[in-house]
Amino acid sequence: CFLTFSTCLPGAMPYISSKYRDNLSKYKYSGTDKSLLSRYVLTPYWNRLVKLFPLWVASNRNKPHDSPNLITMSGLLCVMTNLATLLYYRPDLGTCPNWVYYSFAAGLFIYQSLDAIDGKQARRTGSSGPLGELFDHGCDALNTTIEFLLVTSSLHFGQSWLTVAALAFSLGAFYLSTWEEYHTGTLYLSYFSGPVEGIIILVAIHTISGIFGPEFWLLKFSDLFGFLDKVAPFVGNLRLNEGFAVFAAISLALNIVAGFHNVYVAASSQKRPVLPALLGFAPFVAACGIAYLWLQASPSIVHEHLLPFVLYIGASFGYQVGLIITAHLTKAPFPYFNLMLVPLAIGCINANLPNIFGVEPFFQGKKELPFLWSCFAFSILVYAHFAISVINELCDYFDIWCLSIKHKKAGDQTKKD
What we know:
4 strands
């Protein structure tokens, strides 16, 4: 049954080592949210919204009811529907009918709402635990890439280097937060964070694109604020969508400084080696560097075949984040190596064969497209194997189901006897 995730893949290797498995029962969520918008506006709304969902605690094991993870998945299905709409109208990430952008705004707001209340519902039903955090972060990681593609259309980025840069900024912010949580044990949301203010801004962007069309974002700042030509010519000459990318870059830079500081303090206070902890950001930097070298040598991907590349990178990113979260839940060593880097390295080496060995690439131009889709297919298979395997391991350990509540409980998940 899909709701139980009870059947492991044949020959599946355990992603949770027996050496660290018992640490699952010691896990306790820790989070800090300093957002004023969240505290005074959104949290009261979320508290009312969660009460609309019945507790659904099963009194009969033969009649399972929905778990908070199903709330999370429902939100993800909303943005996946948005992605399907985008790919139906403009797989080249171009301009869609205006009504589509309204649907993007609605889908993202619904996702944020359901993502915010799944934890509240878990506490109401006594079903909170490591599986919920893994499921929540996994959906957030996938939504990051999905929403990026939607915003690419809304902001009229199209297939360009600006899109590539924005992708790095978006994924970098999420990776940074996950890496920081692994070392500090706490999820930090500052006064301005992606999951709160960032999403509200994206909802506004989608709505504005619905009203005026994505072409609105091609205006220069000076077109709206004429005084900028004299006061700050550089800003005035920026297009609105370019300004958004610059804002994302600055936000990431500030978060990197704060994240490195928090990780340094955490490692020092726990008397752990600081350098290995700080090097946890290196896999993401390495992936960005390899991707850049590939795209620089094969620019047709950027301007003609960016969709499969972004989908591949997104699935790879979800896999890497999943590995980090699993290690965080079990207090296992940080996963520096990512299997998904292998296709990325192959593509990079192939594209740079003329520069390295003076020979033609094995595949280039149109022949590179099948390889890109193969990379995406490979990443989906690996990520699916990981997700199903880890969910099975957690469900078996806690004697629970993934998308339904198996036992009537008064407290949180505890290890089965």
